[in-house]
Amino acid sequence: MISGTYILSGVLLAVTAYLFDQGVLTAITQTLAWCVIFFLASAGASAAYLTVSEIFPLEVRAQAISVFFAIAQCFGAVGPVLYGHLIGGAVMVIGGITEIILGVPAERKPLEAVARPLSMVPSTAVPRAAGATTAFSPRDPG
Length: 142
Hints:
142 residues; mainly alpha; elongated
């Protein structure tokens, strides 16, 4: 779904950019075209955010979502520059192709099957310093 919506919205964006450049679109047809494009793109973006929340272990899931959100905001800041040209459509298509190549098949799977919680992963703790007998505690009992 993610790749399909991104690729389709990218192609439609490129087509409307071409039609706009040719002077074929009126204000109404341009608005209708963009409504369709943004409907598809927002569905893909919503699915992408949900996928991000599923592919990371529970303990770092919120941090992963915030990092992806920050990256998306950076791309959103340069969006007006990119969408002023046909590059915007190409970026959407590249995003869809990237999802096809790197996407994680998480449909109809329990979250633990997609990304095991870190608490279930065997301990890979760093060995303690020589002579250390207890775990660190911020409170000194004495």
